[in-house]
C-alpha cells in the first residue's frame, strides 16, 4: 500500500540564533504576527499562524546549518513576490535568485539573517 496523505509536510522548524531578532525579521517580511510560546518545551519559540487558529511551524533557538546548506522552507508571500523580496532584503536577509515561474505561481530564494534557506512563494 502507498501512503498518500492530504499534506505531506506537517510541521517545520527554523533554527535561529536570536529569537527576538528572528521574530522581528519574519513578522516584517511576511506581514504576520508570529505567536510566542514559552510553556510548551525547554525553550521559548515563535509559531507561524495559519487560518482557523492553526500553526504551520516555528522558529526556535538553535544552531542553523552552514549558510544556505540546510533544507529550503518556502513561505507564502502576503502580497507580490517583488514586495516580499524587497522587505526580505531591507530587513537583513539576502535575496539570492531572480523570480522563478512555476505552474503554482512564482518564487525566489533568499538566505535569512541566520543563514537559513528560505523560498518566498507568491501564488
Write a brief caption for the model:
This protein is an alpha+beta fold and 123 residues long. It has helices at residues 19-30, 81-90; strands at 12-16, 35-37, 45-49, 55-61, 72-76, 94-95, 100-102, 105-111, 117-122.
Task: Give the C-alpha Rg.
Answer: 15 Å
Low-confidence region ranges: none
Q: What is the typical, i.e. mean, pLDDT?
A: 94
Q: Helical percent range?
A: 10-25%
E-strand count:
9
- The run of helices and strands is EHEEEEHEEEE
Give the overall form: globular
Distance between the termini: 33 Å
Q: Give the second-level CATH assignment, the architecture.
A: Roll
Describe the protein.
It is a single chain. This protein has helices at residues 19-30, 81-90; strands at 12-16, 35-37, 45-49, 55-61, 72-76, 94-95, 100-102, 105-111, 117-122. It is α+β, with helices and mostly antiparallel strands and 123 residues long. The strands form 2 sheets. Strands 5, 6, 7, 8 and 9 form a 5-stranded mixed beta sheet that branches. A 4-stranded mixed beta sheet has the order 1-4-3-2. Strand 8 (105-111) and strand 9 (117-122) form a beta hairpin.
Helix-strand layout with pairing:
Elements: E1 12-16, H1 19-30, E2 35-37, E3 45-49, E4 55-61, E5 72-76, H2 81-90, E6 94-95, E7 100-102, E8 105-111, E9 117-122
Parallel strand pairs: 1-4, 5-9
Antiparallel strand pairs: 2-3, 3-4, 6-8, 7-8, 8-9
Domain VOC: 4-123
Protein name: VOC domain-containing protein
InterPro entries: Anthracycline_SecMetBiosynth (IPR052164), Glyas_Bleomycin-R_OHBP_Dase (IPR029068), Glyas_Fos-R_dOase_dom (IPR004360), VOC_core (IPR037523)
Amino acid at each position: 500500500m502507498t501512503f498518500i496523505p492530504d499534506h505531506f509536510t506537517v510541521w517545520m522548524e527554523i533554527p535561529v540564533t536570536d529569537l527576538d531578532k528572528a521574530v522581528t525579521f519574519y513578522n516584517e517580511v511576511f506581514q504576520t504576527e508570529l505567536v510566542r510560546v514559552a510553556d510548551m518545551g525547554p525553550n521559548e519559540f515563535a509559531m507561524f499562524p495559519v487560518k482557523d487558529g492553526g500553526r504551520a511551524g516555528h522558529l526556535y533557538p538553535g544552531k542553523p546549518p552552514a549558510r544556505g546548506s540546510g533544507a529550503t522552507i518556502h513561505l507564502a508571500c502576503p502580497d507580490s513576490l517583488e514586495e516580499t523580496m524587497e522587505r526580505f532584503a531591507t530587513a537583513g536577509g539576502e535575496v539570492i535568485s531572480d523570480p522563478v515561474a512555476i505552474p503554482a505561481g512564482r518564487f525566489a530564494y533568499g538566505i535569512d539573517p541566520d543563514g537559513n534557506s528560505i523560498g518566498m512563494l507568491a501564488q
